[in-house]
Structures are given as structure tokens and as C-alpha cells.
Amino acid sequence: MSRLNIEDDVYNDGISEIISNLNAPREKIVVLWDFDSVVHLVLYSGKDEFGNRNPEYMENDLELLKGKLTEMTLKTLNTVEKYFDIVSCYIFIKGNSNFRKELYPEYKANRPSTNPLIKELYKYAIEMHQAIPADNCEAEDMVYRVSKEINHEGLILFVDHDLLEIPSRFMNYKTGIFSKVSEKEATYNLYKKLCLSEPGDNVKTSPGIGEKYFQKNFHIDMTIEEYEEALFKAYLKAWKNDVEKATEQLTLAKKLLMLRD
């Protein structure tokens, strides 16, 4: 079955980045989905017309939330099926433990406490949508693991920029926009994350190093050796030429911020 006239749509969803001939038969594809962010998005109660946060969802809203979760899941997969035949869909969610927290207890300790209903929604995702818990790691690690096993030839559904260190095809499920990350881009994205660290996850291994520093000292055509040299210089700058401290913090950053398989 072809996709005739899809290219005539006024809305540009970026599909031409990953499909060169929209009239060709549909490609069979494996879908990999970091589903944690979906659950959190469903639980977000939004704001009123004055910009104030609406009351949190309560236990009597659980059926409504389950409906929202299923609606978002089906809507997203329907968007993918405009262009692809889905042969497998792996949905990954938070598991029982996380090696990053064991390694560094402060990891994501700055995040606000989550709505207790999240446990019920995780349970529902497992029962209704065959979600797979990412035990001892994170959902994004499982996406990376399976993507690597299929030579990064699947389609990753995401909103979290961490996954952009994978050379793959993507669809942002919030915007419906398709994109592709090359090997060079994936490496660049990884070293940018390592250089700037992740204060949003409470990982502050390179204090004082910001976007301007990265743009000045890194570029996409670097070799791995050049990236590593520039990265260590950044950490030396952050830690005022204390080689031992810079080495320690860079090692920690790699353990916490790189995806693991």
C-alpha cells in the first residue's frame, strides 16, 4: 500500500527527512518508545486561564487518566502508521531500581515528588499496553539497548533529548514531527551533554561551563580523540586545573549521563 498524496499535506511533519519516496510501499518498522514521559504528561493537570496550576488529579480521576493514557498511545501509533507498518512496538517504563541512584544518591533528587497515582498508571501500562519495566536502569537505556540490537534501524518515539545520542530515526510524540540523527550528530549531542552536564537531573559535574563555551570549543566534525581532549579541558576549567577533581567528575558524568546497554 502506497502513501499517495501524503506529501501534499500543508502540515510539514518532517517525514521527508526519513522517507525519500512517499509513494513507495510502506516500510516495516520496529518502534521503540520511552513511555515514562507519557505517564508524566498524562498526570500533568495543566494551568487555569490565569496561569495557576490546576489541582492535582485524585484517586477518583484514575479511570479518566487511564483513558487519556490509552488515547495518547493509540493516537501516537496511528501517526506512525500513516507512513510505516509497525511489526513490533517496545514500550519501556520505569522499573524497580536505577543503578544511577545507587551510584549517586543525589541523582534527580531535585525533582518534585510525583503524584502517587503514577504507580497505578505504570501498572495499567503493563497490563493494557504490554509496557516493559526497565529494572536497574531507565526506560531510555532500554530504548538504546534494543536500538543497538537492531542496528539503529527502528523508529524511536521520544520527547527527552537524552535519546538524541542514538543515531536513529525519531518521532517526537508531542509534536508529531519526524527527524533523523546521524552518527556525527549523535556523537556531537553526547559530548554536548557531557560537557554541560545535566543540572535538571541534579548532575552538576561541570560548574561554570555553559552553551557559549561548548559552541566555541567543540564542533561536529571532531574525531573522538579531539572530543575527549576538549572535554577534559572543559572539566579542567570547571575545576580550576585540579586534575584529580576534574578526572573524578568527568568519570562520574560518563557513568551517569551516557546511555547504557
Provide a compact summary of the structure:
The chain is α/β, with parallel strands linked by helices and about 260 residues long. The chain has helices spanning about 35-45, 60-80, 100-105, 120-130, 140-150, 185-195, 210-215, 225-240, 245-255, and strands at about 25-35, 85-100, 130-135, 155-160, 170, 175-180.
Helices and strands in order:
Blueprint: E1 27-34, H1 36-43, H2 62-80, E2 84-98, H3 99-103, H4 118-129, E3 132-136, H5 139-149, E4 155-158, E5 169-172, E6 177-180, H6 183-196, H7 211-217, H8 224-238, H9 243-257
Parallel strand pairs: 1-2, 1-4, 2-3, 4-5
Antiparallel strand pairs: 5-6
Helix pairs in contact: 1-2, 2-4, 6-8, 8-9
Explained architecture:
- Residues 4-9 have low confidence and may be disordered.
- The chain has 261 residues and is of the alpha/beta class.
- The protein is 41% helix and 15% strand.
